[in-house]
Amino acid sequence: DLCLKKAKQTSELNAFVTITATEAENHGIESEKRLYVEKNIKSLEGISIGIKDNFCTKNINTTCASNMLKNFVPTYDATVYSRLRQAGACLIGKCNMDEFAMGSGTIDSIFGPTKNPWCYKKEDGDWRIAGGSSGGSAVAVSTGACLAALGSDTGGSTRNPAALCGVVGFKPTYGLVSRYGLIPLVNSMDVPGILARTVGDVVTVLNCLAGPDEMDSTTIKRQFNPVIMKEISLPKIKIGIPKEYHCEGMSKEVLDTWQYVADLLENEKAVIKSVSLPHTSISIAVYSVLNQCEVASNMARYDGLEYGLRTEEDHSTEELYASSRSQGFNDVVRCRIFAGNYFLLSRNYEKYFIKALKLRRLISDDFKNVFEGEDSVDLLLTPTTLIDAPLYKDFVSKHNRDQCALQDYCTQPANMAGIPAVSIPIRLSKNGLPLSLQLMGPYLSEDLLLNVARKIE
Ligand code: GLN
């Protein structure tokens, strides 16, 4: 009941597209209850969970915050939702997002933007963005409307809003958690993400979700060994600080926080060393090309015929496609489809798409080299975002719109490589807003990654 009350009290933040829980169902949920129960790691009994509105939920609207799917009611559940229900969780509602998960602010939703609860005053028009694209999920956790929430993470969409809203945001290894029922953005990079208030809570949810799924052929076939929270000895851990992540536009406060945590870890006798991921600076451009190509292909299914928006246009099938798609998608989505189709033209295919795939391999190999090569490290420590949560009016300015991709500078390389990463809130900026750092680890290093993250939180 408390969670539902909180969801209703904070409705002006616009975290939810649909609230599904009712008082009757929700009884007995304590908002301060922690999820982590050592002896019963599978149980989410009675725990309130939010789910981003791009996961299919049977008989419950799944809109992707778009006109195209505004009235779409799936006939099946995403695997992650079925597994949460099997573990006893209770869905409080579907969370707001950027349309089709394209964005870093949760500002481009047909239901309006989601507002950051930090420093939010009702009468003040100068509110901060929640980050995105899983901003609704981050706000729902941060306000206590749910104990954990699912987001999706293609280039940082779980970690970015978690960082700006002061909660933990985790992106698993690609293929560890099923994508079945997650409406695709970039199939080769998408993963379901978990947002919660503590690393322990993330682990409890992960242990319910992870593992092979016959409905998603890209899931890792090996059986998943649950992550166990334990005391780890920092003196054995080597943590790399990649020098290329000191990028232009990163605030002094973020840099200081990074140094502060590196010093703390060093004081605890962890080995901290500078490492190089030389292809980091091209990662944003490569990500954009691959993203747009996969978007162009994925969005082709929305033709106004099978499902989704269908306009009244009846002159010809072509015109029906065109009018349904132009009314169904916002500018961001249409621009990406347009750019992706350009990169995929037969005369451009080698020059852009194939080239981007080759460069993606180099970015991925950078991680392999630091984790496996001579002088290797166990984990990497970086900031999650370049600054604390921007004001909405600054974020939507023309200049920032053009720079939008930069928001993902620190987060999207992990998606290119398929490795796990977690954003952990550290302290407050002088604006009174959360500042967070990111830990990344090698493929399937969830156990170490999350145990070290717990030391830092
Ligand atoms: N901001 C990135 C994009 O717009 C990442 C989105 C995501 O991770 N879903 O593509």
Automatic annotation (TrEMBL):
Reactions catalysed according to its record: L-glutamyl-tRNA(Gln) + L-glutamine + ATP + H2O = L-glutaminyl-tRNA(Gln) + L-glutamate + ADP + phosphate + H(+)
EC annotation from Swiss-Prot or TrEMBL: 6.3.5.7
Gene3D superfamilies documented for this protein: Amidase signature (AS) domain
Database matches in InterPro entries: Amidase (IPR000120), Amidase_dom (IPR023631), AS_sf (IPR036928), GatA (IPR004412)
GO terms classed as biological process: glutaminyl-tRNAGln biosynthesis via transamidation; mitochondrial translation
Localization per record: Mitochondrion
GO CC, one annotated term: mitochondrion
Alphabetically ordered keywords of this record: ATP-binding, Ligase, Mitochondrion, Nucleotide-binding, Protein biosynthesis
Catalytic residue list: 52, 133, 157
Domain Amidase: 1-450
Gene Ontology terms, MF aspect: ATP binding; glutaminyl-tRNA synthase (glutamine-hydrolyzing) activity
Alphabetized Pfam families for the sequence: Amidase
Subunit text: Subunit of the heterotrimeric GatCAB amidotransferase (AdT) complex, composed of A, B and C subunits.
Protein function: Allows the formation of correctly charged Gln-tRNA(Gln) through the transamidation of misacylated Glu-tRNA(Gln) in the mitochondria. The reaction takes place in the presence of glutamine and ATP through an activated gamma-phospho-Glu-tRNA(Gln).
NCBIfam families in the record: gatA (TIGR00132)
Protein family according to the UniProt entry: Belongs to the amidase family. GatA subfamily.
Protein name as it appears in the record: Glutamyl-tRNA(Gln) amidotransferase subunit A, mitochondrial
Source species taxonomy: Eukaryota, Metazoa, Ecdysozoa, Arthropoda, Hexapoda
Gene name per UniProt: GatA
